[in-house]
Amino acid sequence: MKRLMLILPCLWLVACGGCGSSSSSSQPDDQTPIDQNPDDETPVTFASVEDLGEALFHDPNLSLNRTQSCAVCHNPDHAFIDDRLDANNQISAVSLGDDGQSLGDRNAPTAAYASFVPDFEASATRQRHNPHGEFTDYQGAIGGQFHDGREVDLKGQAGGPPLNPLEMAMPDKATVVERLLENDKYVASFQLLFDENVFDSVDDAYLAMTTSIGRFEKTDLFAPFDSKYDRFLAGEYELSEKEAAGRTLFFSSLTNCSICHQLHDEADPVLNRRETFSGYEYHNIGVPENTAIRVLNGVTEKDAGLYLNPQIDQESDKGKFKTPTLRNVAVTEPYMHNGVHRDLKTVIEFYDQFVNPQRVNNPETGLPWETAEFPETVSQELLEIGKALDDQEVESMVCFLRTLTDKRYENLIQTKGIHCDAALVDPAPTEPDDDRYPEIPAEMTDPVARGEFLFKQKYGCSDCHGSDLEPIPGPNDLDLNGNFIDRGNGLMDFLVGRITEQEISELQRYLSTLE
């Protein structure tokens, strides 16, 4: 049954690492050849494997009807996603095949930053770099290409779409190689850059093609690391109030986003500059079926995700999908592995529903959130960590995620009613102040005990820092201006004008007892 499911449409339009094309459907002619002297009999060739890969990436001749290249499903002008519109004039949740009729069942993910995905491992351990050390290391499948990691690396991924019947639809490798042989520049380049006899073997020629595409996908074009967030880390950009508040939420235990969406230790000054915002773990986060797409593509089988990977045989892995990068997430809608959500704000509220009883309905449909395809394997414990967010905090999260957009794609960000340069608004209290900030019992006189009460109950410091505390900076990090711990921003504003000097002293006494 498992092998049969692998050929269903629900698997076949994942990302095309060769499914694809940009606004141009023709092979680019601006490559720099090694020798362009028309009087020289030396064949014209591409200067490097990467240049050859770029030409292949844009070449629609590698599809059956010569209509689809890798860049169709991974448009370089739109964060390397498939930005073609559907009948409703929205970016389609799934991609259209080379035949102009076939539809896949998964959303083609961005090819940007894909080179940083580690090779697939069915069983691995990953140290999570969350800020408070409260969670155990992840153990399970990691990395690989496509939503289910079924290809180990980029060259493996690049070889899938040309032979996929719902994508580029070539019948076999030999037919693809025949198309390569039609192009004299390809032939000369393959022989120069790989082996003079590379075309003697179909498998060797096909591997050279996929290797070239993979090498192109490792160039800086796919991973410039020049977003506002990167410029902020370099001291070249100042985050707005909302962006800063969203950053703090993202890296705090209030949301715990960083458990799954942080690859490097934030304290590492080098690796933190190349953060891809994914640990490439596999989880079932409760994404519902995209029924609208299923009506169009006729797929009836549940998408078992990771379980369909040939290296996986545990039923507990059904419904799990790889954690995607958040680079360019603000311009790569629709979201989730099946494109079921269209708005980034909806995605934040989808996560918030697991801890917030007020998030009853999907804002895009006005109806209650639908159940997961495999509810029995949902990572419920992981999803229920954290605190409920209010609407302003949701907006702040969206604003921070927008800062992860590559500079050349910032013009694609749509406001959608969220203005990230606007100041934060102090929320009106929803309950009496005395109830929100209970006073220390009169009989409690020990300053250490009073400090612990302040930390864990009155001011809820433990909401972000955890109840089982690790040592944190102090006491000089505490002052009356609201600049607390390491990120000083709007989350601490509620303390300004409320906390007293005596309470600060008592907090310091409590913190000093931590080993």
Can you walk through the features of this model?
- The protein is an all-alpha fold and 515 residues long.
- It has 3 domains: 188 residues, Cytochrome c-like domain (Cytochrome Bc1 Complex, Chain D, domain 2); 185 residues, Cytochrome c-like domain (Cytochrome Bc1 Complex, Chain D, domain 2, Orthogonal Bundle), CATH 1.10.760.10; 79 residues, Orthogonal Bundle (Cytochrome Bc1 Complex, Chain D, domain 2), CATH 1.10.760.
- It has 18 helices and 4 strands.
- It is elongated and about 95 Å long.
- The termini are far apart.
- The N terminus is likely disordered.
State the end-to-end distance: 55 Å
Architecture (CATH level 2) name of the largest domain: Orthogonal Bundle
Biggest sheet strand order reads: 1-2
CATH fold-level topology of the largest domain: Cytochrome Bc1 Complex, Chain D, domain 2
Nearest-integer average pLDDT: 86
Uncertain parts: 1-38, 471-490
